[in-house]
Design a protein that fits this description.
The chain is mainly beta and 660 residues long. The chain contains five helices and 39 strands.
């Protein structure tokens, strides 16, 4: 294995030596080095240098969906190591299933991104689904490529390739594709996913008009097996020798798969009706327009029905399909003045089209309709101002509709204590209908057919306090109060003779949910050693029957880092420890691709990974002994009820930025 690690390092060194002088130091400090690139032109007799470009890594800009701009970062830090995974973001607080590309069991909850509109549903399929706010745009002085690769669990790979270039200083194009195929270790657990992203950003030479647009196409497929049988769980925990081969573990079924498809066209454009250059008053008036045309489709297929979900309309070739399209247009105008700040208002129209191909007549005579199709008008506004170290921001939106009533209000204020420390407070008040799959659903399984037009809005009040300091760390305290909390739960099967004792149904909690959460992040460094700490402490003060999380979730990394080979290579090695306390975990339902509340106790457990990371120029190489304690721990850990957690595995890969 050491030879393999060295071979990868030598490959990177050999290939990066062919590039220009690339900026970026190995540590976690921004680069100030320059990139020297030359273009040549000539014939058989001579070559003539026609252009020299002298830029730094910081000149390569990433523009986030909210308009914030960050510079390319090719450094190797412990926080970037946390983002080296299938999601390409820090997954602290998420407990992964056995195979990559399958759901995550959420150990903590975040309500900060809720809007006044309901969402599609199938939330367990959306961890890797890229929404409009997840797409970035770019501005680069020369073409830029990034390549991500990581090994998986048998017969597959996980890659993410990205390319961007500025055709003109005003026009940038990018294209990226993330793909995954992983067979997994258990029967019928194959995953195959793809995320295609294409972006275009343009800004006129006089900087009065800009447009950012993207197109994405996504398909996220996973085979479903329903988890282990009750007998298999017992054999697994007893460490039956035959179960050392995970493909021998008995599953509920081996004939189903679920897939989420999605396509989206998005446009964000604005024109300055009055720019700063037009007036000495420094006022600026801008008209803006946003268009979001999204199409989603969720399918569950099974060749033969199983009794664990209750009675079915069909005994074979079960096929559930739900479609969802929405078109959202937002028109607005903003006024910005140096001393008053920025004030904007907008009007928004959304057409929702969610549903199925036919109606369902149930045994009790009730009719489940096939579609929810509504036009919703909304108004809203934003205000942002800053003076001295104080910043104030608020935004609000209100739906003007009898059925799709909803509102979302966010008020944020912050104060910069010094150059490295900021305190902030945020208040969020939100009201929205539950997701569409709570309101209407159809399936070939009789129990999974419902229509709930009388469900009330879920109402949220949230207060957050935060201290962010490079010296003292980051600390966030949040309190959430939720009325009409909507969830999937269990009811007793009215058919006492059926194999399924309980059935999954959408529910609204009569009790108010009160949820307190404290999150702390602090890193310590002494010489060449570091200790990274993340801790979440949370309490459900009321509503425990519907809302459950572990009291404590922690992650610590103890590591060593230093330069090797005359500073040609930067090395980082250490161990990462994860732990959470006992709680009653939600269980996974493959038909809905949702988690539901159940009463099964979930024992605490810890995981630990040993990692060896290295950086050569702009390539970061990762090598990990993942979850090594399972070698001596036994079969005691589960990702969700009846779904085993991951075994020990050796994984490696890299992230490589190439400057052309």
């Amino acid at each position: 294995m050491r030879l393999l690690f060295l071979a990868v390092l030598l490959f990177v060194v050999a290939h990066t030596s062919a590039q220009g002088t690339l900026g970026g130091n190995a540590q976690g400090r921004p680069s100030t080095n320059r990139i020297s690139l030359s273009e040549t032109k000539g014939d058989d007799n001579d070559k003539k240098e026609i252009k020299d470009i002298d830029v730094s890594v910081s000149d390569y800009k990433q523009i986030l969906a909210n308009g914030d701009t960050i510079s390319l970062d090719t450094t190797l830090t412990i926080r970037k190591y946390y983002k080296y995974n299938y999601l390409r973001r820090d997954d602290f607080g998420l407990l992964p299933f056995q195979n990559i590309g399958r759901p995550f069991n959420a150990l903590t909850r975040d309500f900060s991104t809720l809007s006044q509109n309901p969402e599609f549903g199938a939330t367990a399929k959306h961890f890797n689904f890229m929404e409009a706010n997840d797409i970035s745009y770019y501005h680069v002085p020369t073409p830029l490529t990034e390549f991500y690769f990581k090994t998986v669990f048998q017969q597959g790979q996980n890659v993410d390739a990205f390319f961007t270039t500025n055709i003109k200083p005003e026009l940038n194009l990018s294209i990226a594709y993330k793909g995954l195929r992983s067979l997994g270790n258990y029967q019928n657990s194959l995953t195959s996913t793809g995320n295609l992203r294409m972006t275009l950003s343009y800004q006129s030479k006089n900087q009065r008009y800009f447009a950012r647009t993207h197109f994405v196409s996504q398909d996220l497929m996973s085979q479903e097996n329903g988890g282990m049988t009750a007998e298999a769980v017992q054999f697994y925990e007893d460490e039956l020798p035959e179960y050392d081969n995970r493909s021998s573990v008995a599953m509920q079924y081996e004939n189903a798969e679920s897939t989420l498809y999605g396509k989206r066209f998005y446009l964000n454009q604005a024109y300055k009706l009055k720019s700063n250059a037009d007036s000495t008053s420094s006022a600026e008036v801008t008209a803006f327009h946003k268009l979001n045309f999204s199409d989603k489709e969720y399918q569950f297929q099974q060749t033969e029905a199983t009794s664990i979900y209750g009675e079915a309309f069909e005994n074979s070739n079960l096929y559930d399909e739900v479609e969802y399209q929405y078109v959202r247009n937002q028109l607005g105008i903003s006024y910005q003045q140096k001393f008053l700040g920025k004030l904007s208002g907008f009007i928004e129209h959304t057409n929702y089209n969610y549903g199925f191909n036919s109606i369902v007549l149930q045994d009790d005579g009730n009719i489940v309709p096939n579609r929810i199709n509504e036009d919703v008008l909304a108004v809203g506004g934003n205000y942002l101002t800053q003076f001295g170290g104080f910043k104030f921001k608020t935004n609000a939106a209100l739906n003007l509709h009898d059925t799709f009533k909803g509102y979302d209000v966010n008020v944020t204020s912050s104060y910069q204590l010094d150059s490295t420390s900021t305190v902030s407070a945020r208040l969020k008040i939100n009201s929205a209908l539950p997701n569409f799959n709570f309101l209407l659903y159809q399936s070939d399984y009789k129990n999974y057919n419902w229509y709930n037009p009388n469900f009330d809005n879920q109402n949220l009040q949230q207060l957050q306090l935060q201290l962010a300091s490079k010296r003292f760390g980051t600390y966030k305290l949040s309190y959430q109060r939720i009325d009409n909390y909507t969830y999937f739960g269990l009811i007793d099967n009215p058919d006492a003779t059926a194999n399924a004792d309980t059935l999954v149904k959408p529910m609204q909690s009569e009790a108010q949910v009160q949820y307190l959460k404290f999150k702390a992040q602090k890193d310590f460094k002494v010489g060449k050693f570091g200790l990274a700490n993340d801790v979440i402490y949370q309490q459900v003060l009321s509503g425990e029957s519907a809302f459950r999380v572990p009291e404590l979730v922690t992650r610590q990394s103890l590591y060593y880092q230093d330069f090797w080979f005359k500073k040609a290579l930067f090395m980082q090695t250490g161990i990462t420890f994860n732990y959470f306390t006992d709680f009653q975990s939600n269980a996974y339902d493959p038909i809905l691709s949702e988690f539901f509340v159940n009463n099964q106790d979930f024992k605490s457990f810890y995981t630990a990974d040993i990692f060896f990371n290295a950086k050569v120029r702009t390539a970061r190489i990762y090598f990990k002994f993942e979850n090594f304690p399972t070698i001596f721990q036994g079969n005691t850990n589960f990702a969700a009820p009846n779904y085993a957690y991951r075994d020990f595995v050796i994984r490696f890969g890299l992230v490589w930025n190439l400057f052309l």
